[in-house]
């Protein structure tokens, strides 16, 4: 853990000194996004120290030629990357002709805050450039109201001189990815223009040999000043366009510019209209004016918080953590565009940046189900349905039937190239189907199965049926050569989670086919499933081998797991953690240490199939070996820990999840935020502390309260009912803010919730005080 | 199988038409080497079609920066490569000023032969260049007598014209490796010179960030002509030096040049003396003259054959195969230099080229023990002893004690970067110790253990002791996370071969320490082995888990092997083989198919520990699943097949070994020859058909004769006795050519061999006629 910002505020991330050593970490944390585009917390003005300047546009990607040491049959030819794109925030500032370089100027009273309530990043500082002191105030936001718009206001006050301030706002698309495999640039210049107070750059992703889509983007800027400039010139060249605005300034006077930028792309517009469209936006917005544009944006954020905010009383760190997670998650994705998905680093970094992983289905979908209109979640499902053909091709490449969804993708094609992941971490396929179950079960929108879901359900079942093999001696079906969610074990046999999920997928497919047949639905025929195939699926699922140890009475993570040397994390000598930075890979692999929930991921997914005692036995066995070196791990453990009344552990793991990036737990936040695991904090509170479960079309709560909290509350959207859940030291209050009643189970008791229910909180004394 | 050259000769490889489509394959097969240096069968003159020009110098290597998709802790920073070096054979030929380009000229009566008896490559052809016909004869050899010398004689006869022939012999060190990771050149120019009939180029391997040795090489040439030139000019520039010699020619006249090249390097000389040393060689050799130099070279080859030749009667393909293998093996290594080793592709290609693998100890050492003075084999052991410190460092990097010899190396540092191989294919470590056992047991030179061997034996034992773990439940030591010799199974647990070898290494260490203690030898103390450590080794070895299946009564290759889907190779549908070109990697891994001997490798190493029945059961079980997609596989299977009287299978596998490259079995010979597996044919005949075993300081034979052979014979050097073994359809004759008697067991009967023994051949009728 390494907390950079110690000034903790419930709604703000506050940085109260300029950061040189950890600037990249600060840049990650101060990231902004509006779903359409996003950027790291870079400075507008010149900064000549270490920095990772990065801005990214959703859905714009480039297929970077695979780099690999030793080629394995089946590897994809490219790894898709979100290209670091046009620097549109750039504003160089000159004080009497001397450039303001934050790395070199004497900077006093630096203050930066990310206002999460309003989605606004502001900065204030005093800088001394050769004796001339100025006070700068900078405000930036990416509009949630007008997605293609970013706005910056840059104010300078002269503290001890009369003279001139020069602002050079610019656009620069000569930008490279730090993670480019062969140090290539991904952009080519199309055109640039500049005029007084205007300028644009148009760039296109380079042609590639893989025949994937080429994208063109246009960045267009319009500049306003608070007084008439003394000089106003402009210039453009390849990849670059600037304005140069010189303003007279007197001591104690404030001069400012507003930079409006519109980013349009060929994802939404014809290439020929990109400039025109961006001009329209700039015209509309500049006419509205800064205050209006800012207010519209803030109102949109406020509305999101109204339905999604989680309040925690008595624990500012926890409160800030959950809000930061929701803020960054919503900054990445708010479901407006079914062509988009949620990249593990969102718009905040490059490694894994922007591609789609199973994280979306496993960790993010439940949050959107809970806090956003159901269309948001449905769009995530449609995204995968749209890519079914590619998943079928992918399975075929590996000599298998049905569909195998890729580990990492943009357009449905597999990008990743580690055999133990790409070819073997196939449990991901189960999560795609589980998401259909989860969505339809939660929302009641079973029409989705008829319309689209069944196609995915059938093809994934076909995959599993071809991927298992019959062990004739034992007359059981097995799945060899897989990597489970715990990636600290590669190429194992019979990973319980994978086998269980495969078995479930087959049964779920059979049940859905039967249901559709009963309802005489045409979509059955669409997929040509015959009786023989159904019987085969049933045979496999009924004879699926699920490793279990009778003596310990626990599920076994995979064959041979119990043959390992079993050492607990707490017994490891100091200096060994994190393992992934201290141990060679083979040592990690043969060790018993678990990177992220594996058996417990299964118990989480199928929480209604296992008793509390079973969960407790397995949690107590596996948790001591778990190092949580995946950001996706602690939330799941925290949820199970709550359920088995281990509240202390649950709280410890919640903290790790909720402040993963703010406290840089994994020592890698400088590369970007862990966006998909941002959902974990929400899950930990709602499904963990509040014990919300929605299996079998029912809604259950079993709220608990961590000892050091005074209370917490959140809203939840369940089947078009908006509920408010409030928990404090005394009682649990659930209010129904919609006008129809709903059945709710609380602590196992059934209630008909009309207006509200208040019952005393159930406290497990043994464990809460442990 | 794809045989390029159909004209089969016992002593020659004959190519009787020019090859355009498969030129790279032809170049590989026509490779020449003299242990010091070697080259592919490229043409001297211009050839503008596809070709891989390659010449390599033993021990000269460059650390090429690692290329990897996903970095794993513990990966080495570089992969050592033998840099493709100076093109010293180049001679451009002009006919009346028109260049002779073999890719474009009309070429008639092309004939090339590799004379293996004499180590000479010759070519003859008629070429028509714009109506001017010439007949060319080209002879090339790399002197075995004078290792730094290469000689070419190029003769041209005018068939239908009077005019002029221009020869432009040149040296060119502007050469790149095809397998360079980042398309970098490995050479920088130091100096070049030229003068009438002379020229040299000096180049140095580029500085590297890994602080490995930098090498400088000098190529110096001296040209002789058979008549006074009409013109003689010269030129040099960076990386390049040439002479231009114009000779008048009349119809039916023959003009010729001799190009002598000396290659000196900083491995043997001070950089300042490289040119001088090479001039000395050129002076000496040109004074001797072409015929003398050639004869000295041929005599040296003839002498090698006198002791090493294997004669096969009645099977020209087999005869050519075994000679080709010995020829290429000796061209790569004949033990003159303990700093050198045997690269898997020798001097014939780049991939894996020139580095040291466990192949040397496992497959090559026995051949040198049998056919070369014992110093040759001893040098191979000393090579590893010299690298012990680096092996200790290597183990340390992986968090382990003792020494782990690298998978791939030049100077002892690990080069390879696939976790499943680099970190997990640790059985290689056992072969380093087994080689000490093999060498000392075969030669009787136990002094070697005292002098050097014990250091390696102890450190490898320490490695195993730290690499095992105790499975407390079963109270057995296990080795998890390994890759056995069968690389079609990665990251398995308890590979029987690895566990057995580890157990043996520990016991062998204990026995040697005890022996040294008894003899009161100081080298015990040198390694600080105390009683407690010895006891630990004994405890581990006595409780080592060795997977066995009682029901099938076979050794189990590794945990879970028998859970696989067991399909026999013969039952695979057509088009699946070779698997490594048709299946995705995960499919290969989870299949039961075996790339190379694994359990059987252990039964081969420890042939005296297993009964014929045990071998038969295990062979019969594993052979049907073996695809032999490693060149190192068929020989071991062939040897066991002989022992269990499956002569038909033994012969089939022998053919595959002996003609692997000549018949391009693995469809990759264009990349270079499989040098280390060249030993397999010798092993198959001597240890297989002739049944030679040398366990426990005894010498045993049990000769068998493949049905279609009339007989075979070979010499063997055993403890300074030179024996001749002759086998024909009637009897087995073993002659002792030294002047002391020796005990020999033949078919299990003990004999005292004075002069010779002749006994009838034992024929297993059932199997020989199968």
Automatic annotation (TrEMBL), chains A, B:
<dbReference type="Pfam" id="PF03632">
    <property type="entry name" value="Glyco_hydro_65m"/>
</dbReference>
<feature type="binding site">
    <location>
        <begin position="595"/>
        <end position="596"/>
    </location>
    <ligand>
        <name>substrate</name>
    </ligand>
</feature>
<dbReference type="GO" id="GO:0004553">
    <property type="term" value="F:hydrolase activity, hydrolyzing O-glycosyl compounds"/>
</dbReference>
<dbReference type="InterPro" id="IPR012341">
    <property type="entry name" value="6hp_glycosidase-like_sf"/>
</dbReference>
<feature type="domain" description="Glycoside hydrolase family 65 central catalytic">
    <location>
        <begin position="323"/>
        <end position="682"/>
    </location>
</feature>
<dbReference type="GO" id="GO:0030246">
    <property type="term" value="F:carbohydrate binding"/>
</dbReference>
<feature type="domain" description="Glycoside hydrolase family 65 N-terminal">
    <location>
        <begin position="16"/>
        <end position="267"/>
    </location>
</feature>
<protein>
    <submittedName>
        <fullName>Maltose phosphorylase</fullName>
    </submittedName>
</protein>
<dbReference type="Pfam" id="PF03633">
    <property type="entry name" value="Glyco_hydro_65C"/>
</dbReference>
<dbReference type="InterPro" id="IPR005196">
    <property type="entry name" value="Glyco_hydro_65_N"/>
</dbReference>
<dbReference type="InterPro" id="IPR008928">
    <property type="entry name" value="6-hairpin_glycosidase_sf"/>
</dbReference>
<dbReference type="InterPro" id="IPR037018">
    <property type="entry name" value="GH65_N"/>
</dbReference>
<dbReference type="InterPro" id="IPR005194">
    <property type="entry name" value="Glyco_hydro_65_C"/>
</dbReference>
<dbReference type="InterPro" id="IPR011013">
    <property type="entry name" value="Gal_mutarotase_sf_dom"/>
</dbReference>
<comment type="similarity">
    <text>Belongs to the glycosyl hydrolase 65 family.</text>
</comment>
<dbReference type="InterPro" id="IPR005195">
    <property type="entry name" value="Glyco_hydro_65_M"/>
</dbReference>
<dbReference type="InterPro" id="IPR017045">
    <property type="entry name" value="Malt_Pase/Glycosyl_Hdrlase"/>
</dbReference>
<feature type="active site" description="Proton donor">
    <location>
        <position position="487"/>
    </location>
</feature>
<dbReference type="GO" id="GO:0005975">
    <property type="term" value="P:carbohydrate metabolic process"/>
</dbReference>
<feature type="domain" description="Glycoside hydrolase family 65 C-terminal">
    <location>
        <begin position="692"/>
        <end position="753"/>
    </location>
</feature>
<dbReference type="GO" id="GO:0016757">
    <property type="term" value="F:glycosyltransferase activity"/>
</dbReference>
<dbReference type="Pfam" id="PF03636">
    <property type="entry name" value="Glyco_hydro_65N"/>
</dbReference>
<feature type="binding site">
    <location>
        <begin position="358"/>
        <end position="359"/>
    </location>
    <ligand>
        <name>substrate</name>
    </ligand>
</feature>
